[in-house]
């Protein structure tokens, strides 16, 4: 799979969520922040994007701690995104 196809699949996962808030937040993050991530952070974001909304949302809003330090970095970045 080439990089373009990988990004397209990731875009699909980020913008076809059960919660509209997650669609907007993950989509905005993918467009603005994802290209600036290092390889470990990019991989961590892919893992997070694969989570179900009900599992991911508490991590994003901080009501549940994340044990993985790289995922925690990405979650901190997600919290800074402002949806237009």
Brief summary:
Its main location: cytoplasm. The protein has 84 residues and is an all-alpha fold.
Explained architecture:
The protein is mainly alpha-helical. Helix 1 packs antiparallel against helix 2 and helix 3 packs across helix 5. The radius of gyration is 12 Å and the shape is globular. The model has no long low-confidence stretch (mean pLDDT 94). This is FAD assembly factor SdhE. One of its GO terms (cellular component) is cytoplasm.
According to CATH, what is the class?
Mainly Alpha
Got a strand count? 0
Q: In the CATH classification, which architecture applies?
A: Orthogonal Bundle
**Portion in helices:** 55-70%
Largest sheet: none
CATH topology: DNA polymerase, domain 1
Number of helices: 5
How do the SSEs run, as a string of H and E?
A: HHHHH
End-to-end distance, in Å?
31 Å
CATH superfamily heading: Flavinator of succinate dehydrogenase
How many domains is the backbone divided into? 1
Please identify the structural class as seen in this structure: mainly alpha
Shape: globular
> What is the radius of gyration computed over CA atoms, rounded to a whole number of angstroms?
12 Å
β-strand amount: under 5%
């Amino acid at each position: 799979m080439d990089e373009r196809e990988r990004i397209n699949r990731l875009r699909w996962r980020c913008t076809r969520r059960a919660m509209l808030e997650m669609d907007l937040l993950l989509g905005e993050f993918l467009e603005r922040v994802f290209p600036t991530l290092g390889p470990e952070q990019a991989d961590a974001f892919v893992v997070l994007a694969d989570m179900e909304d009900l599992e991911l949302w508490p991590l994003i809003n901080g009501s549940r701690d994340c044990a993985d330090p790289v995922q925690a970095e990405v979650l901190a970045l997600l919290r800074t995104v402002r949806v237009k």
